[in-house]
Structure formats: structure tokens, C-alpha cells
Amino acid sequence: MSTAGKGNCFFRARGPYGRWASPPFTARTAGGPYGRTLPFAFAVAFTLPSKRNRSAHPLHTPAGQCPAAGRRCIRSSPHSRGRPRRPRTRPPFKPICTGPALDPLSSHFRSSLVLAAYRTFFAQPKVIPLFAANFLGRMTGGMAPLGITLFLRSHDHGFGFIGLVLAVYQLSSATGGPLLGRAVDRFGQVPVLCGSALGAAAGYVLLVGSGGDNRQAALAAVMLAGLLAPPLEPCLRSLWPNVLAKPELVATAYALDASLQEIIFIVGPLLIVLAGELAGQGTALLLTAVLMLLGTAAYALPHRAVRAWRGRPHQPDWAGPLRSTVLRRFVLAMVGVGVGLGALNIGTVAYEEHVGQPGLSGVLLGTFAGSSLVGGLVYGVVRWRIAPAGRLPWLMSGSSLGFALMISVPRPALALVLTAAAGLFLSPVMACGFSLISEHVPNGTATEAFAWMATAVTAGNALGAYLAGLAVQQGGLRAVFVLPVVAALAAALVALTLGRAARGGPRLPEPRPVSEAVR
Please, which residues bridge with residue 372 across strands? Predict the structure, then answer.
């Protein structure tokens, strides 16, 4: 059937809007009988319908009706064997952002992108009071080690005994964390937090009351304070899925938690030094206990979500969360992260003595903590498409790059840059680990699982400090910076095995909202 010369009839053409070209082209102007297929490059240029002809485009008219010629026409080529073909259409365009248009290069766009996630997070009810109270109680983690050291030094104890006391304190805290976490999963947060806070405060009071002269009493006091340190960190992290309804808000909470943790280790030592200068070292240590009690009470007592929180029903097991293959491998990887942190503490002091600039170690550690804070805040903004088990090895291996370049013992200015580059990955590693635990931990063991993570980092920190001391004595300054590189790469290799285990590991069901949990 030929329609040459019968008006502005459509002809078949291949283009981005389908197989039909738009008027005013006719079969005669197309150069052939009706239905001939035009070359692709020629057809694309003439298949964009104008505003005048858009209403007459085949995508906007009934099939079989030619609006230009006013006649019925066959929309099939001679090779279609009489079967009508449906015009191909593109899917509707879906913009990435449905808000007001912003210039991607403008500072307003960048600031809106960075702050949107945290603005949404802090807009949730009860989030700011929970965060503030929890961090007030956790200030003990940044104050107690230095406070104990200064108190014992004020009573003329040697560094050998002080090192023993701090080792007992850290080992007691690492041991008591998982035990208290299991108690929280079984009995709830309020009774365990209040009881442990009172016991830990009694330990600090006993240490100050002993006057620092009785060594046995000092060891018993720090052991009591470490074993009963209230598990505020794992309690808050296990509470977020019940308080926040959206998973992306939970991920933002974990990133913010990991980032603001660095503030504790920056502000805590400053507070203990200031209080010691104004009121004495014993009073500063008592201030540590008071802040712990106030923060614990402000977190546990006023908030209904904390009082109503209970671990999910599960079958009791002596292994607890460690029966999960994902968690066992993750804890082993976090030991490597702790080894790197312990080696960094010794390495910065050795580097300070090497370059002969007093106070440089504190600047390097402060740069590391500040960089970790920035890295965690940026990590919380990104919406990752890769699962936590897939991105954790890359984050762990990224921290090894800065340490690897420190082996060359660079100048102090470059050392600051390299330390900052290594610190960028610490908080993201922690935040990614929080997400991994919340997704794959067995039911009813979330608080204990978060406590095991802290225990792994603490144990690795102690091991790293010991190995770094040996490395400085046996191999010199270069050897001490090899240790965090090896530890980070070993942790990344262990984390690589998490992907396969995570695909078959247990997953938690969707958490109940607070409105349902408190009924």
C-alpha cells in the first residue's frame, strides 16, 4: 500500500522517541514508498516533535489514525508481515532531587548536601537529650586514665606501678563490658546502668580515700571501677534502631557517634588537667565519678524509650553474639585496628624525641583525632550502595596508606599531613562496624555485641602498645610505623572474609518503633 502524495502522513523511522517520524515529512519527501525505514543518523535529527506537531505525534494519538492526513494508515513496514508494532517509548525521567534547583558548584548546595542528613537526624524527638546525657556519662573514658595517672604521681608513685594500675584498669574494663552487655540484653538498660554506675563511682571514691599510699587498695579500686564501668556506649547504639524509624537515620547516628567519640578524648583530658590545677588531683578524680553518675542518670531515668527497651527474645547461649561467624571475624579485625592505635601512641612519642620538638606527639595525636572526626562526619552524609561488609575492607586498608608513608620518617609538617590522612578512616571504620553489628548480630544480643567491639579495640590497643615498645627498642623508629601498617592490612584481609559470611549470617527483624515498644 503506497500513500505517496496523500498528505503529511507519518513514515517509519528509528529515533529516540520511537519508530515514527513526525510531520511535516511525507512519504514522497522521504524518498520512497510509505513504510521505508530511514537511516539512524538521518532519522534521529527529524524525530524530535516540535510544539506545533506534538499533539499529532503517534505517542499522543490512537493507534492506526494519521492525524496529519485524516486517513487510516497501516503502521507496519513491508517486513512486519502484517503485525502492528507498538511504538517504543522512553521511561519517564525521574529527577534525583525533587527539591528546589540548586547550582552544584555553589556553596549553598554543598552545605545543604552536607547538613541535610544531620539536620533531619537532630530533628527527631529526644535525639539531642539522649546524645548529650550519654556523652556526659561517657566522659569518664577520656578523664579516668589521665586522672588516675596524675593522682598516683602526686603521691610519688613510679611509672612502673602506674603502668600496672592502668593495665589493670583497661583489662578490667575490657572484661566487664561484655558481661554487663549481656546483663543489659537480659534485664534491660536502666537497672544495669544505675547499678554499675554506683559501683564504679565507689571504686573511684575508694582510690581517693586510700590516699594513694596503699598499693593493694589502689589496685582493687581501679579493678572495681573498670569492671563496673557503665556500658553507655553499647546501650545507646542498641537503642537507635528502636528510636529511629528509617535505616538511613540509624546509619547517620552511628557515624555521628563514632565522630563525636573523638571529642571525649580531646575534652576529657583538658577537664581533668583544669580540675587538678584548680582543686587538686583527688578532687579531679572525684569529678570524674560525679560526671559519670550525672550522665548515667540523665540518660537512663527520664527517657521512656530507655526504660522500655528490652532485648529481643532468644534462646540463651553461653557464646552469646559470638556464635555469629560475622561477629567473630569482625572482632578479630577490630583487634588489628586496636593494635594500630596502640602503636600510634608509642610511635608519636618516639617521633617527637627523634625530631627534638617537645609537645609534637600531642599535636600529632590531636591531628589524628580531629581528622577522624571530620572523616566520620563526611561518612555519615554519604548514602552507600555497598553493604557494610563490602566497604569495611576498603576503609581499613585506607588507613594504612598514611602510616606506610610515615616509615620514611618525614619532616614534621608532612608528618602532620600523613597522620591526618590516616585518621580520616578511623571513625568511618567504627561507624561501618556499628552498622554491620546491627544487621548481623543474633537476636537479643545487640548490647553485648557492641561491647565486644569495644573490648576488641581495647585489647588490641594494649597489645599494640606492648609490641610498639619492643619495636622501638629492637628496630628503631621506622619499625614502629611498620606495625600499624601491618595491623591495618591484616585487619582488611580478615574483613574481606566478611562478605561471604554476611550473606549467610543471621539478620535481625525490623525493630519496633518506640510507640509500639512502650505500649
Answer: none
Q: How far apart are CA 309 and CA 173, in angstroms?
A: 24
Dist CA 193 CA 236 (whole Å) = 11
- The class level of CATH for 315-503 reads mainly alpha
Partners of 18 in beta bridges = 15
Question: What angle, 0 to 180 degrees and rounded to 10, lies between the N-to-C axes of helices 412-423 and 325-355?
Answer: 170
- Could you tell me the pTM of the whole model? 0.67
Give the CA radius of gyration of the chain: 32
Assign a CATH topology to domain 113-311: Growth Hormone; Chain: A; (1.20.1250)
| Dist CA 445 CA 508 (whole Å) | 10
Instruction: Indicate left, alpha or beta for 101 from its phi (over 0: left) and psi (-120 to 50: alpha).
Output: beta
Same fold, 113-311 and 315-503: yes
Domain ranges of the chain: 113-311, 315-503
CA-to-CA dists, residue 19 to 12, 34, 64, 77, 84, angstroms: 6, 13, 14, 11, 12
Which residues touch 100 (CB under 8 Å, ≥6 apart)? Answer: none
Q: Residue type at 140?
A: T
What is the biggest distance separating any 2 CA atoms in the chain, rounded to whole angstroms? Answer: 113
Report the distance separating Cα 152 and Cα 43, nearest Å.
87
Separation between Cα atoms, residue 494 and residue 216, nearest integer Å: 41
Question: SS3 letters for 112-148?
Answer: HHHHHHHHHHHCCCCHHHHHHHHHHHHCHHHHHHHHH
Cell of 478: 621506622
Per-residue pLDDT of the chain (519 residues; tens, 9 = 90+): 444 444 444 434 444 444 444 444 433 444 444 444 444 333 434 444 444 444 444 444 444 444 444 444 444 445 545 555 555 555 554 444 443 443 443 444 444 555 677 788 888 888 899 989 999 999 988 888 888 888 888 888 887 788 788 888 888 988 999 999 989 988 889 999 999 999 999 999 999 988 767 888 999 999 999 999 999 999 998 898 888 878 888 888 888 888 888 888 888 888 888 888 888 888 999 999 999 999 999 999 888 889 888 877 666 667 778 888 888 899 999 999 999 888 888 888 888 888 888 878 878 888 888 899 899 888 888 878 888 888 899 999 888 887 888 888 888 889 899 988 988 999 999 999 988 888 888 877 888 888 899 899 988 888 888 888 888 888 888 888 899 899 999 999 998 888 766 665 444 443 444 333 333
Q: Which grid cell sits at 283?
A: 578532687
- The answer to whether the CB of 354 falls within 8 A of the CB of 405 is no
Provide DSSP, 440-489.
HSPTT-HHHHHHHHHHHHHHHHHHHHHHHHHHHHHH-HHHHHHHHHHHHH
Taking CA 450 as the corner, what is the angle to CA 488 and CA 379, rounded to the nearest 5 degrees? Answer: 55
